Amino acid sequence: MDATHDNPTVPACRVTDDNAEHTCFVLSGDLTGRTIGPLWKQCAHSLKHSRAKKITLDTVKIGVCDGAGIGLISYLLHTAQKRGKTTNITGLRSELKELLNRFEKTPTQLEPTTVSLNAVETIGKQVLEFLQDIYEQIAFGAAVLITALKLAFKPQAFRWKDFFKIAEYAGVRAVGIVSLLGLLFGLIMAFSSAMPLKQFGVEIYVADLVALALVRVLGPFVTAVIVAGRTGSAFAAEIGTMKVNHEIDALEVMNLDPIAFLVVPRVWATTLMTPLLSIAANLLGLVGAALVILSLGYPLVTYNAHVQTILSIPDVLVGLFKALVYGGLIGIVGCLRGLQTKIGAGAVGISTTRAVVTSIILLVIAEGIFSVLLYFLEI
Amino acid sequence: MSKAIIKIESLTIGYDDVTVLKDISFQVRQGEIFIILGGSGCGKSTLLNHIIGLHSPQSGHIFIHSKDLTTADTAQRREILESFGVAFQGGALFGSMTLLDNVMLPLTEHTALPHSAVEWIARQKLALVGLAGFESKMPAQLSGGMQKRAALARAMALDPDILFLDEPSAGLDPVTAAHLDELILQLSQTLGITFVIVTHELQSIFSLAGRAIMLDKETQGIIAEGNPNDMKNDRSNPAVWRFFNRTAATETV
Fold it and tell me: Which pTM value belongs to this model?
């Protein structure tokens, strides 16, 4: 290759001696990846329409030739041979010949074809995967509970430092966002329920409605959704990255149980922090509702009296207990999705998404079960 | 003597306020296999990352094809970047793409070749590094050595005249490493590609036997330059002697 070549010549292919017996392709100019795009199409087209039994490639006039140029030559030879033609190549410089041989020595093999499934098989596969996933969630939840119980009897083995660090991140640092959303939720709920109640002149009952719905259902639920998006996803991403980097394998060969080491402190952190956060959401939600009541012209004393009458201690406890369960679910699901991470950078993203989606689905299911249960228990 | 394709002039590099290498100058000539050696932590990879334009030097100039990378504007920079290929230490293959897609990416983005041509050339590049039959594999499904070879194939996709290789044979078995060295030699001879290789694998250094510079952590500069075979027998510099003869540093030196 003449490396100091300053005037690149346009690559070209002239077809000479085109008859039923023999076709000659005369390649000329600089064959480089940046320039031979049009030439490639032209050559492939000419070769496709040639009926000759013998193909000759005249390469004497080739100037600079890089890997793409060699690619074109080998492509033409290969395609011609595949069509049952004999091939001949003339005037190839020795260094290019060597390169061509290198390519020819390693023929491009056919790929093993992937098995495609029909509709029924696809559905069956997905159902099996779904059932398998449910099984894994239950099994993992049970493993976490058992490990947590074991650790309760030997607290010196519990990772207290990790627990406090995670609890600070999952709890203390979320107070701001949870309070803000609680306040806005209180405002919105009070405002939208004040509209219809005003028609009956009983808008003061907004206080009863909001207080009950917030403390029993919505406060814990909204808090849990925030924790799932903020902390559950973080668990999945962190543990997922550890999995990709073989850190989980390292823990296992050091005879450290990943569940005791990583999962239990995290699950405890979310389990204990979610109820505390939901207290903040409840309080600020009540403040939000109070603002609406004040703007409707009622004194704060009246609002206070209504809230105190309608809310009982069991209502508050029910709400906090739900938050406790939600927190546990979020912690378990976040860690499970992290541990299920497959290989590669993209897998961490998938795990994070799955953690949030599964958490929210489980929250809704748990909320449904709680509603039915509390109805029959008459709490 | 052929002309200089890369020129480094009084380059000082480092991260933040830590200087790794101070006031170094050297040239890489067209078509040669140039090796940057040195022990761990001497700034080999840092130097490479600066030459390929990932970081800006603290002072000094880097000329590639007599164009200054340190002062280039966006358009010039792109032109310089397109003239070389880089195979990173860990491969840096895109994990979400198959090997074939990894190699096809630069070809589809930077050339006007038809799809069949791009695929053909990409398959050939993979075959060239001994990965025929692995086209549809994901990078994560391959061994470390295969990932390195695939990275080399991707770096060569556009047939650049300069290839930068960061630790190409580290972590490979001797046979595979020897194959890779042979491949590098052949590419250098047949295509006239200039190689700049960062390595500390003695076997590779001797079999590639180009010109080398050796960096040193303490002096933060180049302590030896020339043919590795001559360096090996040079007893005048104890650090160079230790490196080539695998001798541990002693307190008295």
Answer: 0.71
Question: Could you state, in order of their start, the residue ranges of all structural domains in chain A?
Answer: 12-105, 143-377
Taking the CA atoms of residue B100, residue B106, residue B108 and residue B113 in that order, the dihedral angle to the nearest 10 degrees is -100
Which chain B residue's Cα is nearest to A42?
Answer: B114
Domains in chain B with CATH codes = 1-83+160-172+190-248 (3.40.50.300), 91-159 (no CATH)
Q: Which residues from A are below 8 Å from B139, CB to CB?
A: 344
Top CATH class, A12-105: alpha beta
CA distance A239 to A335: 7
End-to-end CA distance of chain B: 38
Please indicate if any CB of chain A lies within 8 Å of the CB of B170: no
- Would you give per-residue pLDDT tens digits along chain A (379 residues)? 444 444 567 888 888 877 778 888 888 888 887 788 888 888 888 888 887 888 888 888 888 887 788 888 888 888 888 888 888 888 888 878 877 877 765 555 445 556 788 899 999 999 999 999 999 999 999 999 999 999 989 888 888 999 999 999 999 999 999 999 999 999 999 999 998 998 998 888 999 999 999 999 999 999 999 999 999 999 999 999 999 888 988 888 888 889 999 999 999 999 999 999 999 999 999 999 999 999 999 999 999 999 999 999 999 999 999 999 999 999 999 999 999 998 777 889 999 999 999 999 999 999 999 999 999 998 7
ipTM, 2 dp: 0.71
Identify which of B82, B87, B64, B98 has the alpha carbon closest to the alpha carbon of residue B187.
B87
Which chain B residue lies closest to A70 (C-alpha atoms)?
B121
Out of A72, A102, A343, the one facing B128 most closely (by C-beta) is: A102
